[in-house]
Design brief:
The protein is mainly alpha-helical. The protein contains 6 helices and 2 strands; from the N terminus they run αααβαααβ.
Protein backbone atom coordinates (compact mmCIF):
# COMPACT_ATOMS: atom_id res chain seq x y z
CA UNK A 1 0.00 0.00 0.00
CA UNK A 2 2.84 2.40 0.85
CA UNK A 3 4.56 1.73 -2.49
CA UNK A 4 1.36 2.62 -4.35
CA UNK A 5 1.10 5.86 -2.39
CA UNK A 6 4.72 6.75 -3.25
CA UNK A 7 4.10 5.98 -6.92
CA UNK A 8 1.01 8.21 -6.97
CA UNK A 9 2.97 11.07 -5.37
CA UNK A 10 5.68 10.66 -8.00
CA UNK A 11 3.14 10.69 -10.85
CA UNK A 12 1.49 13.79 -9.38
CA UNK A 13 4.84 15.54 -9.08
CA UNK A 14 5.77 14.79 -12.68
CA UNK A 15 2.42 15.87 -14.05
CA UNK A 16 2.51 19.07 -11.98
CA UNK A 17 5.73 20.23 -13.62
CA UNK A 18 4.79 19.11 -17.09
CA UNK A 19 7.50 16.80 -18.35
CA UNK A 20 10.17 18.81 -20.16
CA UNK A 21 10.66 16.10 -22.78
CA UNK A 22 6.94 15.97 -23.57
CA UNK A 23 6.74 19.79 -23.78
CA UNK A 24 9.68 20.10 -26.16
CA UNK A 25 9.53 16.94 -28.27
CA UNK A 26 5.93 15.78 -28.59
CA UNK A 27 3.96 19.03 -28.34
CA UNK A 28 3.91 22.00 -30.70
CA UNK A 29 6.98 24.25 -30.38
CA UNK A 30 4.78 27.14 -29.26
CA UNK A 31 4.09 25.37 -25.95
CA UNK A 32 7.73 25.40 -24.83
CA UNK A 33 8.40 28.73 -26.53
CA UNK A 34 5.54 30.47 -24.74
CA UNK A 35 6.43 28.93 -21.37
CA UNK A 36 10.00 30.23 -21.64
CA UNK A 37 8.69 33.71 -22.39
CA UNK A 38 5.92 33.66 -19.76
CA UNK A 39 8.33 32.53 -17.06
CA UNK A 40 10.93 35.15 -18.15
CA UNK A 41 13.61 32.54 -18.75
CA UNK A 42 17.11 33.78 -19.51
CA UNK A 43 17.35 31.14 -22.27
CA UNK A 44 16.62 32.47 -25.75
CA UNK A 45 16.31 28.99 -27.25
CA UNK A 46 16.36 25.28 -26.42
CA UNK A 47 18.22 22.73 -28.56
CA UNK A 48 16.13 19.70 -29.47
CA UNK A 49 18.86 17.28 -28.38
CA UNK A 50 18.30 16.73 -24.63
CA UNK A 51 15.58 19.37 -24.91
CA UNK A 52 13.63 18.16 -21.88
CA UNK A 53 16.54 18.52 -19.47
CA UNK A 54 17.60 21.84 -21.05
CA UNK A 55 14.02 23.13 -20.89
CA UNK A 56 13.89 22.27 -17.19
CA UNK A 57 17.22 24.07 -16.65
CA UNK A 58 15.85 27.11 -18.49
CA UNK A 59 12.80 27.01 -16.23
CA UNK A 60 15.11 27.12 -13.21
CA UNK A 61 17.13 29.91 -14.86
CA UNK A 62 14.09 32.19 -14.95
CA UNK A 63 12.96 35.16 -12.92
CA UNK A 64 12.40 34.18 -9.26
CA UNK A 65 8.79 33.59 -8.31
CA UNK A 66 6.72 32.37 -5.37
CA UNK A 67 5.13 29.02 -6.06
CA UNK A 68 3.60 25.97 -4.48
CA UNK A 69 4.15 23.99 -7.67
CA UNK A 70 0.49 23.58 -8.57
CA UNK A 71 -0.40 27.01 -9.99
CA UNK A 72 1.27 26.82 -13.40
CA UNK A 73 4.69 27.84 -12.04
CA UNK A 74 6.47 24.68 -10.90
CA UNK A 75 8.59 24.71 -7.77
CA UNK A 76 12.36 24.16 -7.99
CA UNK A 77 12.23 20.74 -6.33
CA UNK A 78 9.69 19.46 -8.85
CA UNK A 79 11.71 20.89 -11.73
CA UNK A 80 14.85 19.13 -10.48
CA UNK A 81 12.96 15.85 -10.22
CA UNK A 82 11.63 16.30 -13.75
CA UNK A 83 15.10 17.26 -15.01
CA UNK A 84 16.45 13.87 -13.98
CA UNK A 85 13.53 11.99 -15.49
CA UNK A 86 13.68 14.10 -18.66
CA UNK A 87 17.39 13.31 -18.98
CA UNK A 88 16.55 9.60 -19.04
CA UNK A 89 13.70 10.11 -21.53
CA UNK A 90 15.90 12.37 -23.70
CA UNK A 91 18.54 9.63 -23.87
CA UNK A 92 15.95 7.06 -24.98
CA UNK A 93 14.70 9.26 -27.85
CA UNK A 94 18.11 10.67 -28.84
CA UNK A 95 18.04 9.41 -32.47
CA UNK A 96 14.66 11.10 -33.00
CA UNK A 97 15.76 14.41 -31.45
CA UNK A 98 18.96 14.44 -33.53
CA UNK A 99 16.72 14.17 -36.60
CA UNK A 100 14.44 16.98 -35.33
CA UNK A 101 17.44 19.21 -34.58
CA UNK A 102 18.80 18.78 -38.11
CA UNK A 103 15.37 19.35 -39.69
CA UNK A 104 13.93 22.19 -37.54
CA UNK A 105 16.80 23.68 -35.52
CA UNK A 106 16.35 25.01 -32.00
CA UNK A 107 13.10 26.00 -30.28
CA UNK A 108 13.20 29.79 -30.03
CA UNK A 109 11.66 31.65 -27.07
CA UNK A 110 8.57 33.69 -27.95
CA UNK A 111 9.16 37.44 -28.13
CA UNK A 112 6.31 39.38 -26.57
CA UNK A 113 6.21 42.96 -27.79
Amino acid sequence: MMKLKNALVLVAAISATGCGTINTTFRDDTVASNKLARWSSNCDSVPRIYSGAVFDYCTLDAAPRQSTGFDGYPSASLILLDMGLSGIADTLILPYTIYLQSKHGEIEKTRFE
